[in-house]
Amino acid sequence: MAETLLEVQGLTAGYGAVRILHGLDLQIAAGEIVALLGSNGAGKSTFNNTLSGIVRASGGAVKFAGETITRAAPMAIVDAGLIQVPEGRRVFPNLSVLENLELGAYRRGKAGKTANLERVYSLFPRLLERLTQKAGTLSGGEQQMLAIGRGLMAEPKLLILDEPSLGLSPKLVEELFALIGTLNREGLSILLVEQNVGQSLEIAHRAYVMEQGAICFSGLPGELLANPALKRAYLGM
After folding, report:
1. By C-alpha distance, which of 226, 207, 206 is closest to 216?
2. 65-98 pLDDT tens trace
3. How many structural domains does the chain have?
4. 3-state secondary structure of 106
5. What is the phi-psi region of residue 135: left when phi exceeds 0, alpha when psi lies from -120 to 50, beta otherwise?
6. Is residue 219 part of a domain?
């Protein structure tokens, strides 16, 4: 059995007096794609940001690669190799494509920057064609490529992808999920946080479903798809 890369136990977090996460338990083994599913407002992005240190946990524990990171600073979490590609791409619009990519290696991956740039170019040839172009002038699909490429520049041990298919055309969504599968086959562990349930479950090894800040299902994708009540209640299927 693969070693546990991420272990979350009883995690609680929120904003001021408003609690969003209610005692979450989640595990990711090295080499897995784990899908975290749920509707808007379920708490998925708050969970991602708590893992990344952007939102401070109020309770519970998070261990990553054997080290406790529950209340670590975001830069320390990046240094450890837990990298998030946030919802909405959030590229630096006034910087060039190359400058955005190089910023991905600012904290982690400096030594391998040249090789990692070549890898990103091989994955996303369109970025190579637009290296000097300002990121804000790219199409939505190209900005998503750039955001993922920037994440890869940090040599992640675990890559969190928060709603990567949001706003993309069906063709680009197909390409995106194919890319996620390729990255995983190369050994990258991925937490895929998505509303695109069908395609997420096609490539995930395991799945969790969130509702109102709590996990209401965890198991194999086939188990989730075989349960009509769960599909209707939590996935709208």
Report:
1. 207
2. 999 999 999 999 999 999 999 887 789 999 999 9
3. 2
4. coil
5. alpha
6. yes
Angle between helices 140-152 and 97-104 (to 10 degrees): 30
The pair of structure tokens assigned to 233 is 């209640």
Angle, alpha carbons 86-62-112 (nearest 5°) = 55
Cα–Cα dist 49/80, whole Å: 15
pLDDT in tens, 90-145: 899 999 999 999 999 998 988 899 999 999 999 999 999 999 999 999 998 899 99
φ, ψ of residue 13 in degrees (nearest 5): -165, 165
Last residue of a domain, one of 133, 156, 179: 156
Helix (H, G, I), strand (E, B) or coil at 124: coil
Instruction: Please state the φ and ψ torsions of residue 71, each to the nearest 5 degrees.
Output: -125, 30
User: What are the residue ranges of helices labelled H in 88-169?
Assistant: 97-104, 113-123, 125-129, 140-152
